[in-house]
Structure formats: structure tokens, C-alpha cells
Specification:
Length: about 325
């Protein structure tokens, strides 16, 4: 059962009509195949045209879709022999940030990412993908292991931001995020990061400070959520669509600005409609990037990361 977003209502109505016709024709001698085919083509065209002209706010809704694939889904569809590793060897384990060894197309990698969960129980278990200090320290531990064993690092970023609770601040949230960002920049092996859903604030950057940053077509990446930005600027979250437009949070905007390197296409209607195809597209893109980075010396990889982030925000000719 597909959960429709507000802007998808016309599509929902058409697909409901198609379903009704199929049910009514069940066991009936009347041939309505031509009418069904016409409506299905109309629905497909409407879905394609709708998703071809999404606003930044609508893309934010797609990135947050409850059925959008998360870390565990991508592991199932893209990777083999995933061996999860837990704990930061300091405080405990964090279920919002998962990671371990895995194989991608026969290549061994260290895989790290945010997991939001798919229902009430798992969302609570994974804290809606909002990492705590021990999660980022676990990521640092895994990145150090990757450097030690000469394995490339792949990260799947999907978080509204790091957990802002008092207990996280008491355990050094800001320091953990900074150290995780530092660990990314100092890696002596290739690193490819992908924003697969929401890329929110430092909680995302801590796992995305790579030499190659990819984004799924309908993902978003920003320093603050549109609602948070609107609350600060206009004192009301109702202005979130305006904030989303102003912040340039879409993959298309960020590619033009040089914040990301590559946009990975999603199936028509978003990754939640066809997770397998979305995963196949992403696996292919990450594999190509890892191939391109495979023979680059460690010193050059570090320099590439430094240069890409130092250049962000520079004006032309500066």
C-alpha cells in the first residue's frame, strides 16, 4: 500500500479509480482492458510530470517519506556479507548510526550510515536516525579500522540532525561530531558519501566529509531543517516551503553550487516506489566512484578533501 503525499493527490485519485475498475471487472464479462490501459498511461504520465517539477519543499517531503528506503534496506539490496560492529569502546552502542564490514560488487568496504527505522518500534529503537556521541565515536572507530586494513569507506547519510538531547550534550555531542568530521578528512583510503534521504546539519557532515559526495535525486541536504529555518527567520514553521526554496537544499541546486559531485537518479515517483531499482542505481554509481579513486595515493585523497571543503562558498575570482 503506497502512502501518498499531499501533492500526489491527483495521482492517488487516478490510481484509486484504476483499482475500483479492476475490482468491478473481476468475474465480469465486460472488457474494460482498453479503459484500464488508458487510465494507467494517464497515471504514469501524471506521476512523471509531477516528479519532474517538484519544489524544494516537496522534495523534502519525498526525502522524509515513511516508506523511503533506509540503511538496512540498502544493505539488503546492495551489499553482501554485511558484518555489523557495535560500540564506541567508551560509553556504549548507538542504534541510530550503524556500520561494519560489507561487500559491494565483490569489493570489500567499511559501510557506515544512519538508520531511521520503518515503523514505530524501529524508529524508536534507532532514535529516528538522530545519532548520539557514541554513534559518531563508533563511526570514528570504524574509519580507523578502514585505514588500518586498507578498505574504502562508504557512508549512507539520512538524518534530520544529530540528537539534541541533554544527555547527548553531556556526553560531548559537539566534540564527537567534530572528531568524526576530522576522521573523514584524515582517512588514508577512498571515501564515497551519499545523501540518501535527509542530510541535516553537522549530524550529516560528520559522515559526509568525503572526496566524493553523491545525492539521490530527491534527497535534501542543508544546515538546518526548513521548519527550523522558518521558525528563526519568520517566527513560524508555516514558512517552511519558503525557507526550503531560499536554502537551495535539493540535489540539483547543490550540484550547481559544487557542494556535491553527482546526482543518482531515482525511479519515477521516488525511491520508495521501487527500492530495488534505486539501490541498483546507487550501487552502480558508488562502484564507479570507488573505481576512479582506487589508485589515488593517500596524500592526494586527503588533499582532495581539504580542497573541496576549502573551496565551498568562495566567490568567483576570489
Amino acid at each position: 500500500m503506497i502512502s501518498y503525499l499531499e501533492f500526489e493527490k491527483p495521482v492517488a485519485q487516478l490510481e484509486a479509480r484504476i483499482s475500483e475498475l479492476r475490482t468491478a471487472a473481476d468475474g465480469d464479462d465486460v472488457d474494460i482492458s482498453n479503459e484500464l490501459q488508458r487510465l494507467e498511461m494517464k497515471s504514469a504520465d501524471l506521476l512523471a510530470s509531477t516528479y519532474a517539477s517538484l519544489t524544494p519543499w516537496q522534495k523534502t517531503q519525498v526525502a522524509r517519506h515513511p516508506s523511503r528506503p533506509h540503511f538496512r534496506d540498502f544493505v539488503d539490496h546492495m551489499f553482501e556479507d554485511f558484518m555489523p560492529l557495535g560500540g564506541d569502546r567508551n560509553y556504549g552502542d548507538d542504534e541510530a548510526i550503524l556500520g561494519g564490514f560489507a561487500k559491494l560488487g565483490g569489493r570489500r568496504v567499511v559501510l557506515i550510515g544512519h538508520e531511521k527505522g520503518n515503523d514505530t518500534e524501529t524508529r524508536l529503537k534507532h532514535n529516528f536516525g538522530m545519532g548520539k556521541p557514541e554513534g559518531y565515536r563508533k563511526a570514528i572507530r570504524l574509519m580507523r579500522m578502514a585505514s588500518r586494513f586498507g578498505l574504502p569507506v562508504v557512508t549512507l547519510v539520512d538524518t534530520s540532525g544529530a540528537f539534541p538531547g541533554v544527555e547527548a550534550e553531556e556526553r560531548g555531542q559537539a566534540e564527537a561530531i567534530a572528531r568524526s568530521t576530522e576522521a573523514c578528512l584524515a582517512l588514508k583510503v577512498p571515501m564515497v558519501a551519499t545523501i540518501v534521504g535527509e542530510g541535516g546539519s553537522g549530524g550529516a557532515v560528520a559522515l559526509a566529509s568525503a572526496e566524493r559526495v553523491l545525492m539521490l535525486e530527491h534527497a535534501v541536504y542543508s544546515v538546518i531543517s526548513p521548519e527550523g529555518c522558518a521558525s528563526i527567520l519568520w517566527r513560524t514553521a508555516d514558512k517552511a516551503p519558503d525557507a526550503a526554496e531560499a536554502m537551495r537544499i535539493t540535489a540539483q541546486h547543490l550540484k550547481k553550487l559544487g557542494v556535491i559531485d553527482r546526482i543518482v537518479s531515482e525511479p519515477v515517483g521516488g525511491a520508495h516506489r521501487d527500492p530495488q531499482t534505486a539501490s541498483a542505481n546507487l550501487a552502480k554509481a558508488i562502484g564507479e566512484e570507488l573505481d576512479a579513486l582506487a589508485d589515488i595515493p593517500a596524500t592526494d585523497l586527503i588533499r582532495m578533501r581539504e580542497e573541496r571543503f576549502l573551496q565551498l562558498g568562495q566567490l568567483n575570482g576570489s
